Amino acid sequence: MSAPQPGVRKPIGREGLMSVLIAPHVTEKTSQGTQQHNQYAFRVRRDATRTDVRHAVELMFEVKVRSVQIVNEPGKQRRFGGRLGRTSDWKKAYVRLPEGQSIDFERSADQARKR
After folding, report:
1. Count: domains in the chain
2. 10 Å Cβ neighbour count for 17?
3. What is the CATH number of the domain that holds 91?
4. Is the pLDDT of residue 3 over 80?
5. CB-neighbour burial class of residue 70 (10 A; exposed 0-12, middle 13-18, buried 19+)
6. Which domain holds residue 51?
7. What is the pLDDT of residues 51-81, one digit of tens each?
8. What distance, in Å, lies between the first and last C-alpha atoms of the chain?
9. By C-alpha distance, which of 1, 43, 39 is closest to 20?
10. Number of other CB atoms surrounding residue 103 within 10 Å
């Protein structure tokens, strides 16, 4: 048995892929991207990679993914009462789909409830 190579991660299974996407990230900017470029934004786990996001979207929404871009969003300084604090860093993924395909979040949520 060979030793694992440093920096090479074992692929995640089906259950792991179900936890990669945290929530859709809906803002004015992402809504504009959806209308003009068929691009959707999601909050994803901090350890998620492009391939993890691609496989998770294809599994959960039954669509083909054209490209994935990942953005690390730094946390912000906030004041909690009299103390300074910091919100958590998080990761965002922009997923672009081919022409003619789309993601219907309501239908996907209904299917998830039925399972």
Report:
1. 1
2. 20
3. 3.30.70.330
4. no
5. middle
6. 14-100
7. 999 999 999 999 999 999 999 999 999 998 9
8. 39
9. 43
10. 18
